[in-house]
């Protein structure tokens, strides 16, 4: 009996005492010094030495020759928590994109996804960051949006989305008469603490979960998207005329006789840009007309404040939360056909090789002759000629776009193949098909023209000394490139890293090598995406690595992006059309715009995944062929062949073996049978479970797969 008690006492050696002692005594110490310092007894020595080895394996201390130890350097870091459903999480560190700190589940019992934390962090034995919670700086949310589930005593609100939020307990009498299955907003009155769940009360009932209008409202609340315009903004919008007046034309070039056309998707309603192209002097003259939104939205006005707060329009299947009221976004600012519209114009003169010879910017009035769709334009290019106004220039547009694309590729511009989903909705707004979006050359025409205009305006404004938001994309970090080299070598692929740093052409050559191999193309595109940094807005010009451009900004979408509106104001100043000063806090505006862009993208992905889950919920039990699109420690993401969705095969459902994650080669390997699953593998799966509320689709591998 004494031995049992004695053994239990040994197991209670506190690692915190070891770490605190080493922190108070900087330098290198042998195990005996550390043991004496914290009062280890002789019969506890074996467990104590095992604890030191464990601390070294976890990267908390460094083990040196002669059984000596020292504390691993630590950093106090702050950032936002991304919590995983399994309980652990990662801290996205403020201002350090390349650092993500792993936090084990035992540290996170009282925190929620999105909370701002301060942690003490260190590198483990493999160089990865790990940490422990020091304190909660700021709660991410005071409310959760979820589905109401009544219980016998207390009720639950199960949060929507993949953010791994725990259910909120709602006591009787605090339900606002919500009905089972309805979407509600619950105010958090008590956060998780000492093993007790979050508790709150329902403050708003949004409606039935399958109502498309409820879906949009719920998403807007969850992601903090303003979805109702302020009264002052709406009142100002009402004062703006629905038609261009004679007074508006003063000082503008009249280009209403030119055959400008808009080319957009079938469902588009806000037309920012119109184009016109003609062959001239052994080359091409391209005119890119962009809605002159800055003429209507003045700095500091209610409309401007509303646009700045939103940052961007947010697009969902079948609906949109616009940056500007529809009276502007679909009305006077939109380049609708057969209507006079005010524009800022970029005239780009190219030689027959696609080299830009000259550029001119001005304000103008145009009148679009046709609203064309990508499908219509592609049909025309494929030989099914259209007799509509403006279509006689489409072949010239295609010829110029091919030249521009070739020149970009020669300079190493990256074209990652990242397919997108098209959600086909029925009349009630419910998904009836999920298709891989077809990428047509007609899409490429507009992309090339917008890239050319954006590049030209950035160079012009910099020469003019104007302050404006650049669109920048920094080169990938060297350690990411080393990991990428090691990973691609497994597939017989590689690239050289120049002493002066990476160049876009290093990777564009790699993409061209694999473009005819579907599996290798998937491998390379996924790997490059992981290695690249995220593009953002900046007051300083750091270049755009992915496009291979030294100067770049966003100019062509001022109806739906606030940075474009800032660029328009800069151009108006440069052309002496506007005397308003440059924004005083441009760096802060750029940081805010980058944040709002990411927020909008997350909301759009969430609704897209919701529609996929709703569709797949009707196909539980169905068998499908697919390809492994991604491998993570917790399982395989499989993309289906016949329906453009991904689902997870969780490692716990791979019952033929015990699998471990080979991080270097991004694959799962069976301990016993040595079976390997990696990106590009063909598999057959069955739809096992769909969690619509949690936005999750689960597959299981079929026997023999």
Structure characterization notes:
The chain has 705 residues and is an alpha+beta fold. The protein has 6 domains: 2-71, Winged helix-like DNA-binding domain superfamily/Winged helix DNA-binding domain (Arc Repressor Mutant, subunit A); 75-138, Beta Barrel (OB fold (Dihydrolipoamide Acetyltransferase, E2P)), CATH 2.40.50.140; 143-209, OB fold (Dihydrolipoamide Acetyltransferase, E2P) (Beta Barrel); 231-472 and 542-605, no CATH class; 478-532, no CATH class; 620-701, OB fold (Dihydrolipoamide Acetyltransferase, E2P), CATH 2.40.50.140. The chain is built from 16 helices and 34 strands. Strands 6-5-4-7-8 form a 5-stranded antiparallel sheet, with no helix packed on it. It has a 5-stranded antiparallel sheet with strand order 11-10-9-12-13, with helices on one face. A 5-stranded mixed sheet has the order 14-21-20-17-16, with helices on one face. The protein starts with a helix and ends with a strand. 35% of the residues are buried. The model is unreliable at 1-11 (pLDDT under 50). Its EC number is 3.1.13.1. One of its GO terms (biological process) is mRNA catabolic process. One of its GO terms (cellular component) is cytosol. This is Ribonuclease R. InterPro entries: CSD2, NA-bd_OB-fold, RNase_B_OB_dom, RNase_II/R, RNase_II/RNase_R, RNase_R, RNR_Ribonuclease, S1_domain.
Largest sheet: 5 strands, antiparallel
Portion in helices: 25-40%
Number of helices: 16
Number-wise, the strands total: 34
Based on helices, strands and strand pairing, what is the structural class? alpha+beta
Low confidence ranges: 1-11
Number of domains: 6
GO biological process, one term: mRNA catabolic process
Keywords: Coiled coil, Cytoplasm, Exonuclease, Hydrolase, Nuclease, RNA-binding
Pfam family, one: CSD2
EC number: 3.1.13.1
């Amino acid at each position: 009996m004494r031995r049992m008690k004695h053994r239990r006492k040994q197991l209670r050696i506190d690692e915190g005492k070891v770490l605190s002692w080493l922190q108070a005594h900087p330098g290198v110490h042998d195990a005996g010094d550390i043991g004496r310092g914290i009062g280890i007894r002789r019969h506890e020595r074996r467990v104590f030495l095992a604890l030191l080895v464990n601390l070294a394996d976890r990267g908390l201390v460094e083990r040196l020759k002669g059984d000596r130890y020292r504390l691993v350097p630590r950093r106090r870091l702050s950032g936002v928590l991304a919590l995983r459903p399994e309980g652990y999480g990662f801290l996205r560190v403020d201002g350090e994109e390349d650092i993500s700190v792993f936090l084990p589940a035992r540290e996170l019992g009282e925190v929620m996804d999105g909370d701002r934390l301060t942690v003490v962090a260190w590198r483990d034995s493999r160089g990865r960051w790990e940490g422990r919670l020091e304190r909660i700086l700021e709660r991410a949310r005071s409310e959760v949006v979820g589905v109401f589930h009544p219980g016998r005593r207390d009720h639950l609100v199960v949060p929507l989305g993949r953010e791994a939020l725990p259910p909120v307990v709602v006591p009787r009498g605090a339900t606002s008469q919500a009905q089972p299955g309805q979407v509600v907003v619950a105010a958090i009155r008590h956060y998780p603490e000492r093993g007790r769940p979050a508790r709150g009360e329902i403050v708003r009932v949004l409606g039935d979960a399958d109502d498309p209008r409820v879906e949009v409202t719920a998403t807007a609340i969850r992601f903090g998207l303003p979805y109702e315009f302020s009264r002052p903004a709406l009142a100002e919008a009402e004062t703006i005329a629905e038609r261009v007046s004679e007074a508006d034309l003063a000082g503008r070039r009249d280009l209403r006789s030119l055959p400008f056309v808009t080319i957009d998707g079938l469902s588009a309603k806000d037309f920012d840009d119109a184009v016109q192209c003609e062959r001239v002097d052994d080359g091409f003259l391209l005119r890119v007309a962009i809605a002159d939104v800055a003429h209507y939205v003045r700095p500091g006005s209610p409309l401007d404040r509303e646009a700045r707060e939103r940052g961007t329009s947010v697009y969902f299947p079948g609906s949109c939360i616009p940056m500007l009221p529809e009276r502007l976004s679909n009305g006077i600012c939109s380049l609708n056909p057969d209507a006079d519209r005010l524009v800022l114009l970029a005239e780009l003169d190219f030689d027959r090789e696609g080299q830009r010879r000259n550029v001119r910017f001005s304000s103008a009035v145009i009148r679009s002759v046709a609203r064309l769709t990508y499908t219509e334009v592609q049909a025309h290019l494929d030989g099914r000629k259209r007799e509509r106004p403006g279509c006689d220039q489409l072949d010239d547009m295609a010829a110029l776009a091919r030249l521009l694309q070739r020149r970009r590729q020669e300079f190493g511009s990256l074209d990652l193949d990242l397919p997108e989903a098209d959600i086909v909705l029925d009349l009630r707004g419910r998904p009836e098909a999920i298709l891989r979006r077809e990428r047509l050359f007609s899409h490429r025409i507009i992309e090339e023209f917008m890239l050319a205009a954006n590049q030209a305006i950035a160079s012009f404004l910099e020469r003019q000394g104007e302050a404006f938001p650049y669109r920048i994309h920094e080169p990938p970090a060297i350690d990411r490139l080393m990991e990428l080299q090691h990973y691609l070598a497994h597939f017989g692929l590689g690239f050289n890293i120049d002493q002066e740093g990476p160049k876009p052409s290093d990777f564009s050559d790699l993409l061209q090598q694999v473009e005819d191999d579907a599996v290798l193309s998937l491998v390379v595109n996924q790997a490059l995406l992981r290695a690249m940094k995220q593009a953002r807005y900046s007051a300083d010009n750091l270049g755009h690595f992915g496009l291979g451009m030294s100067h770049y900004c966003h100019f062509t979408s001022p109806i739906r992006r606030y940075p474009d509106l800032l660029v328009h104001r800069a151009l108006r100043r440069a052309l002496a059309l506007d005397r308003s000063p440059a924004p005083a806090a441009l760096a802060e505006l750029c940081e805010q715009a980058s944040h709002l862009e990411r927020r909008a993208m997350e909301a759009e992905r969430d609704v897209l995944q919701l529609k996929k889950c709703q569709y797949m919920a009707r196909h539980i039990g169905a068998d499908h062929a697919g390809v492994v699109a991604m491998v993570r420690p917790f399982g395989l993401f499989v993309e289906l062949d016949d329906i453009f969705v991904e689902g997870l095969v969780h490692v716990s459902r791979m019952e033929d073996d015990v699998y471990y994650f080979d991080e270097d080669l991004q694959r799962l390997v069976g301990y016993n049978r040595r079976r390997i699953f990696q990106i590009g593998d063909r598999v057959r799966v069955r739809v096992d479970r769909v969690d619509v509320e949690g936005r999750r689709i689960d597959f299981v591998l079929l026997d023999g797969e």
